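Q: What would this chain look like folded?
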Amino acid sequence: MATIKEVARRAHVSVGTVSNVLSGSSTVAEELRKRVENAIRELNFQPNHAARSLKSRRSKTIGMIISDITNPFFPLVVRGAEIAAQKAGYVLNIFNTDDQLDREQQMFALLQTRRVDGVLAVVAPNPARDISHLSSTADAGIPIVCLDRVPPGYPVDAVVVNNRRGAAMCVRHLISLGHKLIGFVSGSLLLQTSLERYEGYKQSLLEAGLAVEPSLIREGDFRIESGYRLAKDLLLNHPRPTALFAVNGTMGLGALKAIDELGLKCPKDVALAVFDEVPSAEILRPHLTSVVQPAFEIGLKATELLLARIAGKMPSEHTVIVLEPELKVRESTLPSGA
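A: My prediction, written as structure tokens:
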């Protein structure tokens, strides 16, 4: 999809001249106007994109792209975003990609045509590191703030959690209880969140003088079924891990199902800790030890950051806000062999 900069290059004029043509300004010479109009036709450029980049009008809408709306972590993120948007008089339009990159690309293209004033995005795994949909949106003058995940190699405003520290706290807790064989149940390691949580896991093991065993690491897709399958595979290992660390709440629920199905007891036979709060945590038995993320605050602060960017109140440098998680120790962790 062509950008205003490409139109300017094709017509051999400035971006400002293209903007003036699109806004109907009478200050543009006829010859320059024709060159710009020809370039627009040749590139199939959508004029509304330029209108967004000029900030000459406001739609008072924000697009929010979520990777998996069924993940219990995200409703609180959306709620925080919704509160901040409503307070500023903005409407939040929410889209779900199911962690599919092609759907994410379609959503970005759609939001450009809908003339949103900004985009909040939880990006999908991106093996090819194709960020063209992000860069074309930014080139069209639409600010982007990423939540929870940051696309590798692309400078962008973001609000994230200190994943490495949260994972390290959790694994240190398991090690302090005597666990030496700790299974790692992960979502896609193509994502910065999983990779940082893996780095925290690895860091804690190495600090304790424990080896990082590839046989104790499993990679899936953040969903319950994946957590169940990967945990079950780990628990059939010999020797069996005495503890599992799952990188999100839904995978943790799947791991709990696997423990129960194999006739094991948590935490007596296998301790379980998760990154992220688990839905209905207070009625689950055992209560799960969790690294709790400030989900509501992530959505709230990301939207406030986006609104400040839309209003031109932010410096040109990209801003990354890092929030701290909290470890809540509950019944699902117990000293090894206890």
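The radius of gyration is 24 Å.
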